[in-house]
Amino acid sequence: MAFNFVEALKWRGMLHDAMPGTEEHLLRGMQSAYVGIDPTADSLHIGHLVSVMMLRHFQLAGHKPYALVGGATGMIGDPSGKSSERNLLDEATLRHNQEALQEQLSRFLDFTSDAPNAAVLVNNYDWMKDFSFLDFIRDVGKHITVNYMMAKDSVKKRLSSDAKEGMSFTEFTYQLVQGYDFLHLYQKYDCTLQMGGSDQWGNITTGTELIRRIGGGKGFALTCPLITKADGTKFGKTEGGNVWLDANRTSPYKFYQYWLNTSDEDAEKYIKIFTFLTEEEIGKLVMEHRGAPHLRILQKRLAEEITVAVHSKADLENAVQASNILFGKSTSEDLKKLDEKTFLDVFEGVPQAEIAKPELENGLDMIAALAAKTGFLASNGEARRELKQNSISVNKEKVKENHTITADDLINGKFVVIQKGKRNYFILVAV
Fold first, then answer.
1. Burial category of 364 from C-beta neighbours within 10 Å (exposed 0-12, middle 13-18, buried 19 and up)
2. 57 noted as active-site residue
3. In whole angstroms, what is the distance from residue 366 CA to residue 381 CA?
4. Is 16 tagged catalytic?
């Protein structure tokens, strides 16, 4: 083996629990393991990244990873960590989501080489769709008692919660379906390990029980901790919702900013989990950061590594340039390079005023742009004072009172950035 997978997870803070004998089993030679991924959207979000990183480390350690898209289980809904049932999806939507997810996973996992440990994507809908209800309860259901299923934490929590709707039979049987996935992969691909978040322990061990009772073999379980933030707020969420890997859902700029804004305590933890830097490299970065925390060395390196991994080097460079527009030195050329989505992300929350495009044909004078037409400043007198004091910029270039704004100033054919001093921004939107 290239390295000891379990040891690597330990120092990275990525190991929560493992069934006895798991480490020894993995040290015997190349083994196969899988992680289940919920296909309810056509993009992963950063909450999925921990298990994806586990699969990547598994492959780097010389083992064979399977990514299981839960097409069938996505039609049911996993009760683990949920307070209510999820929406069910049709087959066409699930297939579309699967293709999108594989494209994102391929940034981390080698699916295409002829190496013996090349990754494989499977969808449990493919083996569950022809399974009749009667066959399932006869061939699978009879091997697991209701007492065993009721003892699982995910079931107990839902049944003891205040949720009025309780728990449907559909969700109650989820652990049997997930357990059967493990049995199927064990029998067809000799897959002996299932990995997932710590909230999946009950579902994973149901699979090892089916392998023992039906397959006559031994399966193993390994879980990672659920990622938390030091301040107690939910990891992977912003005011706008999930932080997605799809650039159309979360722009590379916003993605980069999410990691850049992590606390010192979280950055020390996340750089081990979400990058492939070595223990020695991370140790050096942590020492440098502690010596000069105001430089945010850890946050910058974390944001750089993960933005390149999920997006690209070019996207990282654009995100850094976009970040400098508000918080560093930048030019009108930097502004013009921004696409509309990134522009709107950078200037989110900045006061805006609309101006009719025909008004720009003859040029909009600066007093009107600052006060009369927009209300950015309280009065024409204040606008004149600020212009005389040389504190007004248009698209990052200082202007005087005699300057006029024309269509040539429009960024993306639509926006003009007006700035008072270093920190006060206003956006003109031509309509």
1. buried
2. no
3. 12
4. no
Amino acid sitting at position 205: T
C-alpha 341/C-alpha 159 separation (Å) is: 44
DSSP per-residue codes, 237-272: EETTEE-BSSTTTS-HHHHHHHHHT--HHHHHHHHH
Q: What is the pTM of this model?
A: 0.84
- Tell me which residue of 196, 156, 380 sits closest to 205, measured CA to CA: 196
Given the residues 234, 284, 313, 385, the one annotated as active site: 234
Tally of CB atoms within 10 A around 352? 15
Classify 167 as helix, strand or coil: coil
pLDDT per 10-residue tile (average), the chain, 431 residues: 90 96 96 92 92 96 95 64 56 86 95 96 90 89 85 76 71 85 96 94 92 95 92 75 90 93 94 96 96 95 97 92 80 83 86 83 83 85 88 87 84 87 85 85
Residues sharing a CB contact under 8 Å with residue 424, sequence separation 6 or more, in sequence order: none
- Residue pair 199/80 in contact (Cβ under 8 Å)? The answer is yes
Verify whether residue 238 is a known catalytic residue: yes
The 8-class DSSP code of residue 131 comes to: -
Please indicate whether residue 178 is annotated as part of the active site. yes
